[in-house]
Structure formats: structure tokens, C-alpha cells
């Protein structure tokens, strides 16, 4: 069966929210575990879908994962400046990993960015430990932009997100 990338449907919000939350929790990506404030953001697909484009990877009717495509600066952008799109909250269900869903989701975001008038690049943030994701980004032509690395929780010195950028 082929993996299909499409917009999330309203009845899939809860399932995608849980896939995203579990991916971050189970991979140890939330510094405060179940009490991490970011967990609520990961689960809130309705909020993301209201401010950006949420895409899902589906195979044979089964939801494999999702990503948020932000077409430019706005409420869902962390770093995008005019002329940039942003990729956020890429997550694939643990049982579905290694089958190309993550790469298909990133490719879909790049395609969408190319269709945005005036968009010349795509930016994303990632954690140091997300090595599988880094390999996807690098394979697709993204390069590290250490000058844009940032800390989403400034009061904690040891939380730094790495950035990657693709020039279109």
C-alpha cells in the first residue's frame, strides 16, 4: 500500500494529537515529561489546523503521523520571517516508523512552500536527539543554520533547539 499525504480531517484531531504527544513523550523529547506544558500544544490539533495547514500520512486508512506546515510568519510560526515557510511538530507513530511517512510529510511541506508566492525558504527547529529526523532533513537538502538556534524556555539554559533551512 502507498502512503497518502493529505490535510487532517476534524475527526482525526484527537488521534493525531495523541500520536504527536506519544512520539515526543516516548522518545524522551519533553524535558518535563507528562507535566511539560508543551504537551498540551502537541495535542491541540484543532488550534494548529485553525492557524496553519496540518497534514497527515495515511496508509490503508491508518493514520501514521502528521506535521504542521506554516506558510509564513504568523501565530503558529516560531522562526519564519517573510519569505519563509516553517515546518513544525513532525511526528510518526512508533509502530509506523522506517516506512517513509516522515520523509513524505516533509516532502509535502516543501512542495507546499514552493507553491507559496514569494516563499524562498523553509525553516524548522529540532532537538539534538532527533537524529532520524536530521537524516531526513539533510537527505532533502536542508542545511544547519546554527546562527538561528534558539531556546524556547530561556529560563532553562540547557534547552537549545537546532535549526535547519532549505533554500527553494
Task: List the topology elements.
Blueprint: E1 3-7, H1 13-26, H2 38-43, H3 45-51, E2 53-59, E3 62-70, E4 84-92, H4 101-115, E5 121-126, H5 131-139, E6 143-144, E7 162-167
Parallel strand pairs: 4-5
Antiparallel strand pairs: 1-2, 2-3, 3-4, 5-7, 6-7
Structural write-up:
By secondary structure, the protein is of the alpha+beta class. 30% of the residues lie in helices and 26% in strands. The chain has 5 helices and 7 strands; from the N terminus they run E-H-H-H-E-E-E-H-E-H-E-E. The chain has helices at 13-26, 38-43, 45-51, 101-115, 131-139, and strands spanning 3-7, 53-59, 62-70, 84-92, 121-126, 143-144, 162-167. The chain has a 7-stranded mixed sheet. Strand 2 (53-59) and strand 3 form a beta hairpin. The longest helix has 15 residues, at 101-115.
Across the major sheet, the strand order is 1-2-3-4-5-7-6
**Residue fraction in strands:** 25-35%
- Which class do the helix and strand fractions yield? alpha+beta
Counted beta strands? 7
SSE string, helix = H, strand = E? EHHHEEEHEHEE
Low-confidence stretches: none
Q: How far is the first residue's CA from the last residue's CA?
A: 30 Å
Q: Kindly state the mean pLDDT as a whole number?
A: 94
Residues in helix, %: 25-40%
What would you call the shape? globular
List keywords for this structure.
alpha+beta; 168 residues
